[in-house]
Design goal:
The complex is a heterodimer of chains A (472) and B (340). Chain A is an all-alpha fold and 472 residues long. Chain A contains 19 helices and 3 strands. In chain B, a hairpin with a 2-residue loop joins strand 12 (316-320) and strand 13 (323-327). Classes of the chains: A mainly alpha (472), B alpha+beta (340).
Chain lengths: 472, 340
């Protein structure tokens, strides 16, 4: 073909394009869809009378009703959390008994019998092994209860209704209704919640959901909250109300977390994440009986693998670090003591102390070991009797013994309140940080997601500490 | 710690916070002001001046130095400096004190306009960026894209003729389509038309139009037009605009005799016990979200009814082809129906 005729064709095509007009692509697409549905209507026979099960519609009318929609939702989430926390108690203490009280001494004896030097024995068994064992004992049971329950609800088809009910609130804060689901997942494990944000298709809203997931109080943090609330909050009211008071304090922290989720979502969508618009469409699938055993089985296996992986890759190094900083001396003090002393001033400003800050730094890989680390460091720093030895994390069977140690470490009600707040508002654990990086593929957003909560934690505990000291 | 006092600590904290706010607050923060004052380049200034002259020429108005400095955000002395340069390089010339574009100046300005409108089209079709931000982002990009980049962008978008506001996009060869229609403010009572263009400048008026939820491509019927306000019906809703706002909407007049009499409504106006048929999706719904709606079965002729209302009344779940699909109110307002 000659150059001339090619040019002629191109000129003709662009001329025709102008004549067809702008609507051409849309009209074509719409026409295809319309034709397809016309063909389907004529050739596919369907029983129009029985469009949806009557039971389905009835359930939907109740779970999305003005009166019952929200109460049912909170009730279900509350029950799941209650079953998780209560139900995890027994397997957790069994595991702790087995791994910490029985297996740990056996390992120590074994090490002694083969003449292992004290530092290697301490590093491996008191450091690495204890941290791994702790994370497994604290984390595995609640994960193994929470996630199968959650997956069952998902399988049943209830979760899309939750997103449907809550979407307006999330829309107001510039986020997506499905964030309700990832937020609830976060109550189990933030890393799992971050992975779950894949269900949100718009990138901006997904980022909001990822950054705010840390404000859901995860399984690793519930035990800390409950222990501190029992010791300190329960003690300020008459004994008959102490149970109620400490329970409401913990629930209050969890609700505060939800409030922060909305607030930070709103702030992000008004500032750094401004621009990208929300699109929302959500299919409400029909209910169906969940495949019980399959769900429970796969969910159990999945979670166990995650917990073990996390314990080995993240908690083990943390254990090693904890043991090392307590046992390596610079001058006449251990690294831990030096750090505690230098952090004490800043800790005091926040109404906390150096021990707590150091514990939160070394426990970045796993929030479960915060309390054991705090106890060990407190005993070490104050030099009181008790504990298992330098660099050996421990926990006590009764809350009152724990209280004695903490009070000896100078803890007051303010310390307890601020610790509970800081436990809610601090950087995500390293598993979550790693997951955020894997999901966003962006160093910038990983840094934002990690630092934003801890800065908020600093500001809020600081403000509360100052006001507390002025008022009280 | 002997100097510590909670009140002092609070005072120090508050003053640091205020300082950070002053430095980094959006738009007016000192940090941004200083940063912006360093970004000045000649190319940007030349291109902005060319574009403004093109707009003046297009609206049939004369432009001189003072009208230019009025619309540009640069310092007056800079504008004069750059205008001098441009006359030397024969992009513009003076006729008395009136500034005119030369042939090469007009070609250049068309190229800038082309990038600007293409970029707006790109933002509308391929991203979820809010329409209030299109203009500013395009203002920035129009100085960045090279000729090749512009052409490949255009062909990726299917060589569009109009941008999302209804402004024509000049072609590579400088050909430009005409906007059909007249200003809404000049329409007589009872005339019927279709909105073909929504002007996105000035910002304040554009925001009002967006807030009113007026959709491009929608049919309107004027019921009142006086110096105080213009009232018209569109898609079953009533709109009241001040004449100054209405002047920024362009309407192509339609022949009332060929129109069908049934009223097209927005899906958002459907009530719980009613059924309707879908007529189409408004032009306001674009790109990914439009295709998603089509995928979900919101196509012409489909029967639709309300399945569920959420406890807070928004979103609403609609029953389409036997499936329940939840949509937010603003999306539902972009689906057009006829009630049964």
């Amino acid at each position: 073909m000659s150059q001339k005729s090619i040019e002629k064709i191109i000129a003709l095509s662009s001329d025709l394009r102008w004549q067809i007009g702008d609507d051409f692509h849309d009209n074509l697409a719409e026409g295809i869809y319309a034709d397809a549905s016309e063909i389907a209507k004529n050739s596919v026979i369907s029983n129009n009378k029985k469009k949806r099960f009557r039971l389905d519609t009835k359930i939907d009318k109740i779970v999305t009703s003005k009166t019952w929609g929200f109460p049912i939702m909170f009730l279900i989430l509350g029950v799941i959390l209650w079953i998780t926390i209560e139900g995890a108690n027994y397997p957790s203490s069994m595991l702790a008994n087995l791994l910490l009280n029985n297996f740990h001494p056996i390992l120590k004896t074994l090490a002694a019998s083969i003449g292992m030097p004290w530092w290697l024995d301490g590093f491996l068994i008191d450091g690495v092994y204890l941290a791994v064992a702790w994370v497994i004992a604290v984390m595995l049971p609640p994960m193994a209860i929470f996630f199968p329950l959650f997956t069952l609800l998902e399988d049943f088809g209830y979760l899309p209704r939750v997103a449907f009910n809550l979407d307006y609130l999330f829309k107001k804060s510039g986020a997506h209704g499905k964030q309700a689901l990832t937020m609830s997942m976060g109550f189990g494990c933030n890393a799992a919640g971050v992975v779950a944000t894949r269900i949100i298709d718009s990138p901006r809203e997904r980022l909001i959901a990822i950054i705010t997931n840390n404000f859901s109080l995860c399984n690793g943090r519930w035990p800390t909250q409950i222990l501190i609330a029992t010791i300190f909050i329960g003690a300020v009211v008459p004994a008959s109300f102490s149970g109620i008071a400490s329970l409401s304090a913990v629930i209050g922290i969890a609700i505060l977390g939800i409030f922060f989720t909305f607030f930070v979502s709103w702030a992000l969508s008004k500032t750094v994440l401004k621009g990208e618009v929300s699109t929302f469409n959500l299919e409400l699938p029909p209910y169906r009986p969940p495949r019980f055993w399959k769900t429970v089985y796969t969910s159990l296996i999945d979670r166990t693998i995650i917990v073990l992986w996390r314990a080995i890759f993240f908690a083990a190094p943390a254990g090693a670090v904890i043991w090392l900083i307590s046992n390596i001396y610079i001058g006449d003090l251990s690294i831990a003591s030096w750090t505690i002393n230098s952090l004490d001033g800043f800790g005091f400003l926040l109404g906390l102390n150096g021990v707590i800050l150091l514990a939160y730094i070394v426990a970045i890989p796993a929030n479960e070991i915060v309390i054991p680390t705090i106890l060990m460091l407190t005993v070490m720093a104050t030099g009181i009797a008790g504990g298992e030895g330098v660099g050996v994390m421990f926990e006590l069977d009764s809350a009152s013994e724990t209280a004695t140690i903490l009070k000896a470490g100078g803890w007051t009600l303010l310390t307890a309140v601020n610790l509970m707040l800081f436990s809610l508002l601090h950087n995500p654990c390293s598993t979550t940080i790693y997951t955020i990086y894997k999901e966003t593929k962006s160093v910038k957003w990983t840094v934002v997601a990690s630092l934003l909560p801890v800065i908020m934690g600093f500001v809020i505990t600081f403000l509360i500490a100052q006001i507390w000291r002025i008022v009280v | 710690m002997n100097t510590y006092n909670p009140v002092n600590a609070l005072i120090i904290f508050v003053s640091i916070s205020v300082l950070i706010y002053l430095i980094f607050r959006p738009a007016k923060g000192w940090f941004w002001l200083i940063k912006n004052s360093f970004i000045f380049n000649e190319k940007t200034a030349i291109e902005d001046i060319l574009k403004q002259l093109y707009h003046f020429e297009n609206s049939g108005k004369d432009a001189n130095i003072s009208s230019l400095t009025g619309v540009l955000k640069f310092k007056d002395s800079l504008v004069i400096e750059v205008v001098k340069l441009m006359t030397i390089s024969k992009l513009i010339y003076f006729e008395g004190d009136v500034l005119k574009l030369t042939k090469s100046g007009r070609d250049y300005s068309l190229r800038i306009v082309r990038v600007h409108r293409l970029w707006e089209k790109y933002l509308a079709e391929k991203t979820g960026i809010d329409k209030l931000e299109w203009h500013d982002r395009a203002e920035f990009m129009e100085h960045k894209l090279s000729l090749e980049e512009t052409n490949s962008l255009a062909s990726q978008l299917g060589n569009p003729v109009y941008d999302p506001h209804g402004d024509p996009i000049p072609t590579n060869s400088g050909k430009i389509a005409k906007v059909k229609g007249v200003a809404l403010s000049s329409l007589a009572v009872n005339s019927i038309g279709k909105i073909t263009h929504i002007e996105d400048e000035p910002d304040i008026i554009y925001k009002q139009i967006i807030a009113e939820n007026i959709h491009i491509g929608s049919q309107i019927r004027v019921v009142e037009n006086n110096t105080k306000r213009i009232v018209f019906y569109s898609e079953g809703e009533e709109f009241k605009l001040a004449p100054i706002v209405a002047a920024n909407l362009t309407v192509a007049i339609l022949d009332p005799t060929v129109l069908d009499k049934e009223i097209t409504l927005r899906l958002s106006s459907l009530q719980e016990n009613e059924t309707a048929k879908i007529v189409g999706i408004s032009k306001e719904s674009r790109g990914e979200s439009r295709r998603r709606l089509l995928d979900l079965g919101f196509v012409k002729g489909t029967q639709i009814s309300i399945d569920l209302m959420s406890p807070l009344r928004n979103p609403t779940a609609y029953l389409v082809k036997g499936t329940s699909i939840a949509l937010r109110k603003d999306q539902a307002s972009k689906i057009l129906i006829k009630k049964d």
